[in-house]
Write a structure and sequence with these properties.
CATH class: Alpha Beta
Structural class: alpha/beta
Helix content: 40-55%
Distance between the termini: 38 Å
CATH topology: TIM Barrel
Order of helices and strands: EEEHEHHEEEHEHEHEHHEHHEHH
Bound molecules: NADP nicotinamide-adenine-dinucleotide phosphate
Strand order of the largest sheet: 3-4-5-8-9-10-11-12
Radius of gyration: 19 Å
């Protein structure tokens, strides 16, 4: 697969990332844990064999199970660890921990960031995480304290590069002003079903500062593909019928699938968006790669943009 440099870091990654969130979420009542784990492993190996070298994870995916599955796969596939980049994220805490009355919240306190990273390393069975991100803005996060935690992890050889996720541009600036480590990525939701990053300054800032935008839910969690199994609460009101109609028209004219067009639409942006492919289906994991060899015209890009915004441009 084609590759890309992540921000100003020295990390070279595949043009598409593989998302590990749903690999731990494939369990259902009909499958044993062993069958579900085998399916998850098959998805990870399919991504590796298809040329994905950027694996997106987080401490909370599957309550840590996603990192255990990736770690076990790394152990069983010779040479895989050396050929891929592993990411993780910290800062989201579930309700009920450490006390029963604790609400679901965000936590960028230095002790929590460091502890969470060490636990991720243990689950993954590796020495160093290539790219470590803050998952969602902590309203009580102090940029100087965060920079201290980053320094501790970097000095101990536990993390190579840092990034953020779901950060508004002003908060990226506030953290970067206090932090000597250049932030390599801002991972946000971007798709034809979610255009906010085009209008709220996120992509402008990525262009200006050479920060790589990573797009989560690039298919609107499946709404732009063949349907969604699980939507996040904010995605439940997404209206995608008109977008899918134009995707299908362009797909038919160009002789590719609807999802190839949806990924190619993200890849066309000059900020060099890295879509994070979320399917656990090996065929679909491979299908997405075709988008990296495909370019939409300006006219095709704008037809889709206009369908997504729901009205003609002024
Ligand atoms: N930083 C954050 O806050 C954040 C939040 C959410 C996600 N993420 C990251 O982003 C990654 C991707 O998010 P996502 O899973 O929502 O992405 P997505 O690619 O938009 O959605 C994947 C879902 O779409 C379904 N789907 C339906 N038709 C499909 C088709 N034709 N081709 C491919 N998929 C199809 C998949 O089902 P099948 O598996 O059955 O194919 C899967 O359930 C996650 O794994 C995670 O790493 C980050």
């Amino acid at each position: 697969m084609k590759t890309i440099k992540l921000g100003t870091s020295s990390l070279t990654a595949s043009r598409l990332a593989f998302g590990c969130w749903r690999i731990a979420g494939t369990r259902d009542n009909l499958k044993s844990a062993a069958e579900a784990d085998a399916e998850a492993r098959t998805a990870v190996v399919a991504a590796y064999e298809a040329g994905y070298t950027l694996f997106d994870g987080a401490d909370i995916y599957g309550g840590g199970r996603a990192e255990e599955i990736l770690g076990a796969t790394l152990k069983s596939v010779p040479g895989m660890r050396e050929r891929i980049l592993i990411t993780s994220k910290s800062g989201v805490r579930h309700a009920g921990s450490p006390t029963p009355d604790a609400p679901g919240r965000y936590d960028f306190s230095p002790d929590y960031i460091v502890k969470s990273c060490e636990e991720s390393l243990k689950r993954l069975g590796i020495e160093t995480i290539d790219l470590y991100m803050l998952h969602r803005p902590d309203y009580l996060g102090d940029p100087h304290e965060i920079a201290g935690a980053f320094a501790q992890l970097y000095d101990a050889g536990k993390v190579r590069f840092f990034g953020v996720s779901n950060f508004r541009p002003s908060l990226v600036n506030a953290l970067q002003a206090a932090c000597p480590f250049p932030l390599a990525v801002n991972q946000v939701e971007i798709s034809l079903a979610q255009l906010a990053a085009f209008e709220d300054g996120t992509l402008d800032q990525c262009l200006e500062k050479n920060i790589t935008p990573m797009a989560w839910s690039p298919l609107g969690a499946g709404l732009l593909g063949d349907g969604a199994k699980r939507l996040l609460p904010a995605q439940q009101g997404y209206k995608t019928d008109d977008i899918v109609k134009v995707l299908d028209e362009i797909a038919a004219a160009r002789g590719v699938s609807r999802t190839v067009i949806a990924f190619a639409w993200l890849l066309r942006h000059p900020s060099k968006i890295v879509p994070i492919v979320g399917t656990t289906n090996p065929g679909r994991i491979r299908e997405a790669v075709k988008a990296t060899e495909f370019e939409l015209s300006r006219e095709e890009w704008y037809r889709l943009f206009i369908a997504a915004r729901g009205e003609a441009l002024p």
